[in-house]
User: Fold this.
Amino acid sequence: MSQNSGTPLNILVLVKHVPDVQFERHLSAPENRLDRADSVLSELDEYAIEAALALAESRGGDKAGNTVTTLTMGPSAAVNAVKKSLQMGATSGVHICDPALAGSDAVTTSMVLAAAVQSLGGFDIVLTGMASTDAETSLVPASLAERLGLAMLTNLSTLELAPGSTTITGVREAEEGAQSLEAPLPVLISVTDQANEPRYPNFRGILGAKKKKIVTLTLEELGLDAAAVGAEGSATRVVSAQARPPRSGGEIITDSGSAGIALVDFLTDAKLL
Amino acid sequence: MSNILVYIHAPAPVPTKSQRELLALAASLGEVHAVLGGPADPIALEALTSAGANGFYTAAGGIDPAALLSPAVCLLTAAVRESAATAVLLPNSIEGREIAARAAVRLDSGVITDAIEVDAELLVTKSVLAGSYTVKAQVTRGPALITLKPNSVQLPAHETASAAAAPVRELELGDNAPAARITGTRPRTSSGRPALAEARFVVAGGRGVDGDFSAVEDLADALGAAVGASRAATDAGWIDHSAQVGQTGTTVSPQLYISAGISGAIQQKAGMQSAKTIIAINKDPDAPVFEIADLGIVGDLTQVLPQAAAEIRRRKA
Ligand SMILES: Cc1cc2nc3c(=O)[nH]c(=O)nc-3n(C[C@H](O)[C@H](O)[C@H](O)COP(=O)(O)OP(=O)(O)OC[C@H]3O[C@@H](n4cnc5c(N)ncnc54)[C@H](O)[C@@H]3O)c2cc1C
Ligand SMILES: Nc1ncnc2c1ncn2[C@@H]1O[C@H](COP(=O)(O)O)[C@@H](O)[C@H]1O
Assistant:
C-alpha cells in the first residue's frame, strides 16, 4: 500500500444482542420486558460490521494499524454478539454489563454508550445498524452522535472513504429522494441492508476469535449512577402490553380459471370497490 | 390548553396526507404550532392553517438547505422552549426519528416512535415486535416527542378553509452542531401513483413476478393503488428500492394489501401485516403468507392479476 492509502483508522461498531426474529418473541409481565432467551447478533448490525471491516481493509487492515472494535450493552449473554463480530474479523470487543441497565430505553442506552465511547476514546468512525431488530426505533445512533457532538450520516445505502481522504461520502434514500451526503471524520454512520453483503465467519475466523480480547465494563467504571439508567432513569415507560391475537388466515381458494373474478367479488363484498 | 408542536419537514402548497394527520391529531390535543423545516410560501402557510395550525415557528435567517437536519433540531428545540409545549408530533420517517432523537438529548426528554394513537393524557399506542404486541407507552420526563405512523389518524371529511394564514414567529437558532452536508439530491421519479406509505390500497409483487412487474402495476392502476415489492424483487433490480415493503423498507397499513408472488417471510410481514385486509396470490399452497391472508388464492399471478384488473375495469365502466 502506498502512503496514499491514508492514516490507519480506528473504527467502533455498535452491536446488539436481540431475540432471533425467526422465533416467536414475548414481552413478559409485570414490567413488559422482552424475553431475551434465544438471542443472536442483530441481523442489521452485520451490515455495520461488514462496512467497518471493508473500510479497515481498504487502508491495509490490521497489519497497517487499522482497528475495528465492537461494543455492546446488554446482559451477560450479549457478549455472544461481540464474539460473533470477532469471528467475522473485528479486532477486539467491549461489553457493558450491569444489572442496573435492564429496562433502559433508547435515549438512555445512548447515554451509556456515549460514556463508553468517551472512556475508550480515539475513534475516527462510529458505525451502527439502521435499527435494532427488537426495539426498531433507530433512535440510538442519532442520540449517540448528538451526545458525542459528532456529525452523523445515518441510513446510508452506500458509503465511501477515498484513499488518503478524511471525508466520508454516501447516499441515503430520504423522503425527498436519494441524498448524496458528506462529512469529515470523526463521524457517526449507520448503514442499511443495502450497503453491502455481510461476510460469514470462516474456520480461521472462528479459531482466531478465541484469542481476541473482550473487555467488560460496569456502570461504576463508566462513572455513571445507577439511578440515571435502567427503567428508573429512562424518560419513557411502557404502561401496558397486549399480545395481538394472531391474524387468522381466511378463506383459501385454488384457481381453476376464475380466481381473478373471485378476487373482485371479494373486494366488492368487503366494500373495497 | 396545552401547546402541541408539529414538525413539518417540507412545507408545500398542498400538505401531504401524513402532514394533515399530524396536524389533525395535534388539534385534538391542544393549541397547535407548526415548526417549519424548510421555506414556506403564503399558499403553504394558508394550507397548513386550514389543516389545523394555529401558528408557525421558522428560523430567523432561514434554514441552510445543505446542512443535514442540524438546523431543524436547533429550531425545534428553540420552539419547545419558547412554547413550553407538552408534546411534539413528528413524522415517522428517517428525518422525523433523527430529529426527535437529537432533540430528546437536548431537552432531556423521551421519544416514542411508531405511534398509531395518542390520547389526551399523551398515552401513546404502538405495535411492537413485528405486530405481535400492542403496547401503550408514555413519556415520563420532559416534552413527549412522538413520531406518528402514516394512515393512523382519521382525517376530517372536509377542512374549513381559513381566511388567512396563522401568525409566524421567527426564532434564533443559536449554536449549530457539526452537520453532514447534502451535496446533491436525486428526486424520485414520480410514478403518478399514490405514495406507498400513505396509500389506501397497495398491490405488491415478489420474486414470483419473475422480472416483470407489469401485471402488478396494471392491477394497481385499475384499483388506484400504490405498487409495493419484496426485498427479493428490489434486490433483483426489477423495481426501485423505494417500493420495498418490510422491516428494512416502508411499513404500510393500507385498507387493502394484495401480495402476489411473495412467500411472506417475517421481514416482509413486519411491514404489511397491519393492513386491514390482505389478499395473497401464490402458486405454493404452503406459502406462509396464506397464514395471514383474508383471502388466499393458490394460483399463478400471471393469470389471476390480469383477470382481476380486467374485471375491475369492466365493473367500473
Ligand atoms: C436483514 C434483512 C432484512 C430484510 N428486509 C426485508 C424487507 O424489508 N422486505 C422484504 O420483503 N424482505 C426482506 N428481507 C428478505 C426476506 O427475508 C425474504 O428473503 C424476502 O421477503 C423474500 O421475497 P419473496 O417473497 O419475493 O421471494 P421468495 O421467498 O423467493 O418467494 C417467492 C414466492 O413467489 C411464489 N411464486 C413464484 N412464481 C409464482 C407465480 N407465477 N405466481 C404466483 N406465485 C409465484 C413462490 O411460490 C414463492 O412463495 C430481509 C432479509 C434480511 C436478512
Ligand atoms: N444495547 C445496545 N448495545 C450496542 N449497540 C446498540 C444497542 N442498542 C442499539 N444499538 C445500536 O444502535 C442501532 C439502532 O438501534 P435502535 O435505536 O435500538 O433501533 C443498532 O443497530 C445498534 O448498532
Q: What stands out?
A: The longest strand of chain A covers residues 151-161. Chain A is about 30% helix and 30% strand.
